[in-house]
Amino acid sequence: MNDCIFCKIINKEIPSTIVYEDEEILAFRDINPVAPVHILVIPKKHISKLTELSDGDEIIIGKIYKVINKIAKDENIFDKGFRVIVNCGEDGGQEVGHLHFHLIGGKKLGTKICE
Ligand code: DGP
Fold this sequence. Notes:
This protein is 21% helix and 22% strand. It is an alpha+beta fold. The chain has a single domain (5-105), classed as 2-Layer Sandwich (HIT family, subunit A), CATH 3.30.428. Strands 1-2-3-5-4 form a five-stranded antiparallel sheet, with helices on one face. The N and C termini lie far apart (31 Å). The model has no long low-confidence stretch (mean pLDDT 96). Bound molecules: 2'-deoxyguanosine-5'-monophosphate. 2'-deoxyguanosine-5'-monophosphate is lined by residues 5, 14, 16, 28-32, 40, 87, 93-96.
């Protein structure tokens, strides 16, 4: 966990452009955006991936979706729409081992959601 890049972002050991923070959740701009809005929303608790949820983690997942809606409003994409993606594991294309929700929008996204 100590080597986790997102934990280092949470601890401000690595700089990021933070758009939302509370006691449990951090959101920051993706370093490699694929759309005008590309924000990563993460639990501060280190959960390595979606399949590693523990009992009780469903509460933070619900809060993350509420935060996503708030950020979508702040970023002016709430009404036009957006996409939320969670990559899980090797076949899911997950590169960073700390659960994260990609909030992507600000342009008309393609209908193809996988290649
Ligand atoms: P995934 O493939 O779902 O694990 O996506 C990881 C995302 O994390 C990828 O879109 C790039 C982003 N990312 C990786 N390292 C950093 C970093 O140091 N800072 C920021 N802001 N984003 C990062």
